[in-house]
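Methods, example record. To illustrate the input and output format used throughout this study, we show the complete record for Cyclic pyranopterin monophosphate synthase. The sequence lines were provided to the predictor; the line carrying structure tokens was produced by it.
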Amino acid sequence: MLTHLDSQGRANMVDVTEKAVTAREAVAQARVRMLPQTLRMIVDGEHPKGDVFAVARIAGIQAAKKTSDLIPLCHPLMLTSVKVELRAEGEDAVQILARCKLAGQTGVEMEALTAASVAALTIYDMCKAVDKGMVIEQVRLLEKRGGKSGDFQAQAQ
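The corresponding predicted structure is encoded as:
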């Protein structure tokens, strides 16, 4: 049985030794709502701090690779691919999609969620001087493939 509790009820890292190595993939999203003029500044490349999407993409990738340092009891994983995509959504939002892959004994849901979250936080950090009212929302797992628990596809919102 997979649990974060040992026989004495103490938290520990799940032992995945006996689990098979399989291809695993997860996709997570986040959304950052902002003032229309903030989004225009980003899209038009006029932000004084530089290319917001490029910095957020790199931050998301780095975060996925460091997930086990950030989330207690997460396994350190050898990710084979991390992609973070950012795009303007309407006139007042940025949509972030993070996709993580590996061949391993445990899933990559936390890595994808961490990548999307940190990319969103990076956008906030870079733009807070001009728009403190930004809202980070809809951080969620969209899909996962592989592993013992099978595939998952989120319901549309």
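Annotations derived from this record:
Strands lie at 22-33, 81-89, 93-104, 135-145, 152-153.
The longest helix spans residues 109-127.
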